[in-house]
Fold this sequence. Notes:
Layout: H1 3-11, E1 16-20, H2 23-26, H3 45-48, H4 51-56, H5 58-74, H6 80-90, E2 94-99, H7 105-109, E3 114-116, E4 119-126, E5 132-134, H8 139-144, E6 157-161, H9 170-182, E7 185-189, H10 201-207, E8 211-216, E9 228-231, H11 234-243
Parallel strand pairs: 1-2, 1-7, 2-3, 7-8, 8-9
Antiparallel strand pairs: 4-5, 4-6
Helix pairs in contact: 1-11, 6-11, 9-10
Residues 21-23, 26-27, 32-35, 38, 45, 49, 100, 118, 190-192, 195, 216-218, 233-234 line the site of adenosine-5-diphosphoribose.
Amino acid sequence: MSGKDLRAMLESSSHLxxxxxxxxxxxxxxxxxxGADGLWNKYDPNKVADADYFFHNPAYYWQFVxxxxxxxxxxxxxxxxxxxxxxxxxxxxxxxxxxxxxxxLHQDAGSENVLELHGNTRRIRCLDCGGGYVLEALEDRMRxxxxxxxxxxxxxxxxxVVLFGESLPEGALQEAVRQSRSCxxxxxxxxxxxxxxxxxxxxxxxxxxxxxxxxxxxxxPLDAMADMVVWDSASSALAGVLEE
Length: 244
Ligand code: APR
Ligand code: ZN
């Protein structure tokens, strides 16, 4: 499959929707979750990505943020894949971008219509006073105390991410479903397509008559129903589209 084939497929669409997972941020140094060197092989998601566990032991969660999440995020910059999607939006080809990622790199690359299904780990909320902070501003606090307390009221802080057991942001999910049902081309990039409800969006698009394109480094459970599968890295597959 060449960049020319992928470009032709995307150019023939009049309502292109992109759907991204951790794989598109891998080349920015953000670890993916599954597979050989996935995060969930080293850290138990039932502890570091679970709502009940967070409220039971917030210090454990925040140590993961301080020692793992934040160091990767602090140094991360958008890569060619993020930039290509922002360019496709500027060209008027890409109408919306649904992401499972919580790193904010699509926005940093210039994408505007971004639907964050799992929230954004760089946005921090105080659960007591509702105060909002950016993770970068809490770096010293994270070094001084675990869990870091709210600078305003001393309350419990939580990143604005959807943990297992929490519901997805209603507005983003509704719009993602609407977009999936009305697009004519659904471009899934860098996702293992195993986590619900996100992974049902490609099927919704397919059932509504859209073409399904999957760009991923390895096979996904939806490859058999895809109209085009590109086994490549996000940045090189998307760079190929723009070069053409
Ligand atoms: N380019 C394209 N794909 C890549 C790249 C790359 N450079 N590097 C890795 N991949 C692929 C992997 O082969 C894998 O199939 O990206 C996929 C990432 O899959 P996951 O790690 O499962 O990430 P994702 O699909 O986003 O997970 C969904 O699960 O744990 C939850 O909330 C978390 O949002 C996350 C959700
Ligand atoms: Zn507070």
